[in-house]
Amino acid sequence: MSTAVLKKTSALDQGKWKTLLIFLSPWIFSLVVFWYGPILYTLVLSFTKYKLVGEATFIGIKNYIDIVQDKYFWHGLYTTFIFTSLYVPLNIVMGLFTAFILDLRVKPLALWRALIFLPAILPVIAIFVI
Fold it and tell me: How far, in whole angstroms, is CA 4 from its chain's centroid?
């Protein structure tokens, strides 16, 4: 391999990497502290019996065994599955239909656009009226 290939620098040389890390460090810190931290803490707590007052005691996977044996868990899971399997496809179809209507070149186009945008602006109007 020739030395010209080894000396070739990437688009981000060392100085740019430092600048990049300086600008990304607040975001990375926030991601770790406010996203990964609570997820990890919740995972640790899921293996304990925890009360608001007192110490948490480690009970292993007993919480998971209890939830699998609970009839309300399975009912909630079933309800969530039905809701999601109906809501997501209907939401996609309604969004595509709305986009199709807005793309049509019809005379009351401004009326269609206003009617579709109305739910987004009504709460703001109601707040200002109150």
Answer: 46
Secondary structure of residue 127 in the 3-state scheme:
helix
**48: three-class secondary structure by DSSP:** strand
Backbone φ, ψ for residue 8 (5° rounding): -65, 125
Domain boundaries, the chain: 11-69, 70-130
Per the DSSP assignment, residues forming a β-bridge with 58 are 48
What is the pTM (predicted TM-score) of this model? 0.56
Q: Length of the chain, please?
A: 130
* Per-residue pLDDT tens digits for 3-17: 555 555 565 676 788
How confident is the model over 66-75, as pLDDT tens digits?
A: 999 999 999 9
- Summarised one tens digit per residue, pLDDT across range 48-61 is 998 888 888 999 99
Token pair 């868990």 is at which residue? Answer: 73
| Interatomic CA distance for residues 42 and 44, integer angstroms | 5
